[in-house]
Amino acid sequence: MIRAGILGCGDVAGRHAAVMRALPEEIEIAALCDHTAATVQAFAQKHAPNAELFTDYRALLAEAELDLLVICLPPFAHADEVARAAANGIHILIEKPIALESEHAWRMVEAVEQAGVKSQVGFQFRFGAAVEAFTQLQHEGKTGKIVLMNARYFANHLHAAWWRDRAKSGGQVVEQAIHLFDLMAHFMGKPVTVYSRQANLLHGSVQGYTSEDTSATIVTFADGGIGVVTATNNAIPMRWIGDYRVVAERITADFATANVASFTHTDQVDIPVTRIDIERDSRREQLLDLLNAIKTGGETRTPIRAGAEVLDLVLAARRSAEEHREITLE
């Protein structure tokens, strides 16, 4: 039985709590922490009435005797919780983006890897049934070289005040569309250059809204492949659309979601189509992957190093937009 603590008791934490509650023989929610006492108390009543409650993460890590820390903090709120948890031998599940500065992210990586604890970053798209099916075909050499990925993240919602503040969220590319950049790197390998244009076109009159609401980004990869990500917060109200298309040498894949896709086999005479449509909770699969790594000593699919690498990519996109030039990634 894994004793887990949740740090940050917002909406995303509730989704993780629901997954954990559905696995009572695997994991228990032993402790909760939020800087606001009323928030952690309300969260406990709904999700974990027997959990220990804390308002100081340092006390949580020192006193709760945890095996796993689930970190659901907004980007600006990260401090040294990862380093403290790792030093105490506590494994880590952390939501993206893991930080707002590259240096901070790589300090997290160093702390986790030196301590030898397991880590998983919340890039749950990688755990979708359709994404897994395509990845398997890729590993078997059945896709051929990937030459193009075209992805979009469309939303229309004001979100929380911190999200609208670019200094606290990093902006839409850094905080939301990062999922698509992660998938792009997962499929296409090492990014080498990025060029981005980002603007706030329709929310300039909204007080405190300094994030971009429209963006387009081009990424080139080491083997010559090209990725394009467009994002906006001006689309259909209360809908979050994250779909993508991948063109490879032998297959063109159209993903409606990480679980639903059509693979057109362009290397065959009759051009057959394989359809994947499987209802799967990717957060559950993500947690099970981490629990398995803890038990077996194996590797997770999205360790904290992946979180730092993709953060560097989206921060480079933001820098490109600010400087109006292509950025070469180190």
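[next item in queue]
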Amino acid sequence: MHRRLRPEAFGGRVHAHLSGMRDYSVIDREVLDSEAVKLSYEKHGSYLLPQAFPEGSPTHPSYRSGHATVAGTCVTVLKAWFDESWVLPDPVVANADGTALVPYTGGELDKVAANIATARNMAGVHWRTDFTESVLLGEAVGIGIPREHVRVNHEDASFGLTRFDGLRLTI
């Protein structure tokens, strides 16, 4: 069972600690002393980071992301059924630390799944690892769908797709 706090709840603990309401000294000083927390306080009078959704995050734990799982499943099935080889010219993505754009070498459908999942991260609803692990869970489910189709239908069929890790799979 995973009971990981959502980013919003973690931000609440940062606020409570820095405001002197509660001792959360286990929070890393890198977070507590970050420029983002200071700027948020200067702008809003609170250590809480602004949320994209006024109603806030769901109250259940963060891990895993349902949106990312569904995106991973849908994209995997689409890759199995359709030609995934067409790509947009010169696509880019953020590098690992988010400080620059780098050429994107994955498939376009992979990028759709990433965009859906990343939007939830940017909204403060999920952590990045909720996205990365959940699309893989969705991929596993998505691989099972054409695998089941081949197994139960009496036809000579096969499906090919490129997994999120870049490996080619034939079902």
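[queue empty]
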